[in-house]
Amino acid sequence: MTSSTPFQVDADITVVPGVGPRLAAVLGRMEITTVGGLLDHIPMRYEHEHAESTIAEVDAALPDDEGAAANVSVRGEIAAIKIPPGRRPRIEVTLEDETGTVQLVWFNAPWLRNKLRPGLRLVAEGRAKRWRGYLQIGNPQWREEDDVETPARDARLRPVYPASEDLPSRRIEEFVTKVLEPATKTLIDPLPDEIRKSRALKRLGDAYRDIHQPESPRDAADARRRLAFDELLLLQLGVMMKRRHLRETMKAAPLALTPEIEKRILGRFPFELTPDQRQVCREIGADLARDVPTNRLLQGDVGAGKTAVAVHAMLLAAAHGHQSAIMAPTGILAEQHHASISRMLEGAEVEVGLLTGSTPAKEKRVLLERIAAGDVKLLIGTHALLSEGTVFDDLALVIIDEQHRFGVEQRSKLRRPNAEGRVPHVLVMTATPIPRTLSLTVFGDLDVSVIRHLPPGRTPTVTRVVAPSKAPDVYGYLAERVAAGEQGFVVVPAVEESDMGLADVENHLKMLAAGPLSGVRLGAIHGRMSRDEREGVMDRFRARDIDVLVATVVIEVGVDVPNATVMVVEHAERFGLAQLHQLRGRVGRGEKRGVCALIGEPTTEEGRRRLEAIGGTEDGFEIAELDLGIRGPGELFGARQSGLPPFRVADLLNDLDLLRLARQDAADWIERDPRLLGPDAVHMRRRLMARYGATLGLGDVG
Length: 702
Ligand code: ADP
Ligand code: MG
Description:
The protein is an alpha/beta fold. The relative contact order is 0.09.
């Protein structure tokens, strides 16, 4: 684009010599569209290359005695190829440079016959020794010399890039080599010198140079540290700037929890709140009493009783005449919340509404009118709550159930100010504890409350990992429990028949009905059913007209039927740990002990470790950490769930210390310059807006 300074980081990738439209498309698929994108394409690892020598140098350096050996790298042309007859297949190549010859010998590598030919130029590396008067390298590593190659005279680390069939690492290296010097020269380091020095970090240009062409592993590690720090700092700055802005400029309706209101609310509950629940309600109450918008995360393991806390807060809003909404991740869960909240409020004046994707159009129209008029005080719903069409009269509180399914972006959507310029308080609830690293980053703008103990009378669910061959025993046990008046779930991975040989709801139900569970009243439930159908099935299950529900993971979260005691999961290896933990949380919610059978045959080491892990612990927090350790943050709370672009360099598992430093520096910086308008912040601010402006909704910050 800018032809005078072709290698500015924002220049289109086609300015790189050799990159035409075809390669630009290939690079585009790797998300490299600019020169800067190329610089940000970080090597996965490095290969050691030995110092290169001429053949005469190798000869001179090697002692004369037979058996002496040294690691060498030489370059030359194939002068001759010999395939001597004999028992062990062997290829002998004479490699020649201007100074001499060396013999390369490969054993048991017949395919090399088709690859090597006289005249070919090679770089060969390996252990050189003397053998019957010859200089010889046995089974060397080799590659064809490509014309793009810079002569590698010194020992070096050669970068290995994430690559594809169309674009091997070496081509990427070639392009990087072309832009590295000129691009890093025009690069402006956005990090103030003061921070850089206090954290002993390299300059940005040096970091790019050293990550792509390090002189030593230490260089590469230091470069990585600098680039990771930048990523962590940027996210922290974004999150903190946003938080500060919210606190300073946004007002919410103050909802004081007076003793009289408190008494009225508690009277509606069919049970006493546990000490943990009361403590958490107090913390939330203290937040809500202020006109500063609450932004709190409520953590509590599956079955800990978070819903009661949510309802407590919603009733507080209603007591002050304001609207509140709770948003659930699935229609089934919203329907269930609606049923239980409606039950609690029987006889009260408060109007409760339910809005999900399957609310019929006509009903929805009426409901939306009543919401806009402020008649509906408590609204329960799914993502539909976020749609443009849902306009509240006076929304004072939003609760998001099962936080990890909602991104940062959704949260900020909820904070649209109403006519009086007020935004709602936001409370998010999660049963999947957020590992510390992540709570410091993606969710770094939230205060945290925790319910640590389950309500009284619970016994922990027993989990067993079972091989498919033992499935009949599992179903036999389930049939016994049903005969004893209890209920259960059977979860399968697919809704419909697939060609992958996975159990699907319909066929699995037929199979069970025809065999191991004949005589048991079975029902099916999955996400493709209409709301009415689903509600009908759930009602019948609750009323014990259905003994066993065959389901997909739609029942994963929230489903609350205390008489259900057995959870069977088919193909358990296909589910995430947090998901399995949620699933087993569907049983053992009453007085009777729950049993969870995970039927699965993990084919990979990772799969085996996962199932062992879930069998080995009850502690959701531990499971979240394990999940993070086994699958990596990308899978669990990575870009997709959080809505934030993923890190390229930083690694949440290993960069915790660096994260702490970045967090501290970000906090200091925002404290000193809340909107990053100072002269030293110009470039950082620009980066921040480019990376997080949209997802964090920083546009309105200034
Ligand atoms: P989760 O934290 O998983 O959302 P729920 O709110 O669904 O948990 O509560 C799980 C079960 O515990 C429900 O059946 C609920 O009625 C019951 N429960 C919640 N709080 C209490 C309590 N203080 N005493 C007795 N039962 C409770
Ligand atoms: Mg819940």
